[in-house]
Specification:
Distance between the termini: 35 Å
Structural class: alpha+beta
Order of helices and strands: EHEHEEEEHEEHEE
Mean pLDDT: 84
Strand content: 25-35%
Strand order of the largest sheet: 6-2-10-9-7-8
Radius of gyration: 16 Å
Largest sheet: 6 strands, antiparallel
Low-confidence stretches: 1-29, 32-39
Oligomer: single chain
Helix content: 10-25%
Length: 200
């Protein structure tokens, strides 16, 4: 039941190489360093925000499964052969040759009309969730991002798209709505979940 949003059609089982959205690549640097690059910051006068990656705890045991076992749960083991394969834990692009999992993730599990799952990448080396305040990582700032605002009942109350330096401003603007409890950022072109955004 895996949705191949970020990378095109599913690869065969095994450590198959997979490409992503076909956008232009970037120079190879340490993923953790790239994740911390401040690509966009909001004006001091508007609300601050915190971006968080996913916890690696539920994903790490999956790397020990065989390729056949992964396929049975709708997941794939892939080897990065493109510099733009974004990890949802570290919020960094994988290095070429890195092992990742491509799997379906319930990013909106609440029992509402907006309940949703989609495909995500997770790097095997990602051992802690990304977190930043008022700084948009390069994996978000370098793409068109769809941002959805949810209230305490997990109902969507607003949404918009942004790109580049405008992304941080959009986060702050949506969170300025007192009815907004949190935001979810998605890669707009493929539709896959990217990150959670809350008030700092």
């Amino acid at each position: 039941m895996i949705a191949r949003d970020a990378v095109g059609p599913p690869e065969p089982a095994g450590a198959a190489k997979t490409s992503v959205d076909g956008m232009s690549g970037y120079g190879q640097t340490d993923p953790a360093a790239r994740a911390k690059m401040p690509s966009s910051t909001p004006p001091e006068s508007i609300m601050t925000f915190r971006i968080t990656g996913l916890s690696p705890e539920s994903f790490q045991p999956l790397f020990e499964l065989s390729d056949e076992a992964l396929q049975r749960i709708g997941a794939r083991r892939v080897i990065a052969d493109d510099p733009r394969m974004p990890c949802r834990v570290s919020m960094a692009h994988a290095e070429l040759g890195e092992e990742l999992l491509l799997l379906n993730y319930a990013h909106q599990p609440a029992n509402t009309p907006y309940r949703a799952t989609h495909a995500i990448y997770v790097r095997k080396l990602a051992d802690r969730p990304f977190e930043s305040i008022d700084s948009v990582p390069e994996v978000l700032a370098s793409r068109l991002i769809a941002v959805r605002a949810f209230d305490e009942q997990h109902m969507m109350i607003d949404a918009d798209v942004s790109e580049g330096s405008a992304t941080g401003e959009l986060f702050a603007r949506l969170l300025d709505n007192p009815k907004a409890s949190y935001l979810q950022a998605h890669y707009a072109r493929r539709g896959c979940y990217a990150a959670r955004v809350e008030r700092a």
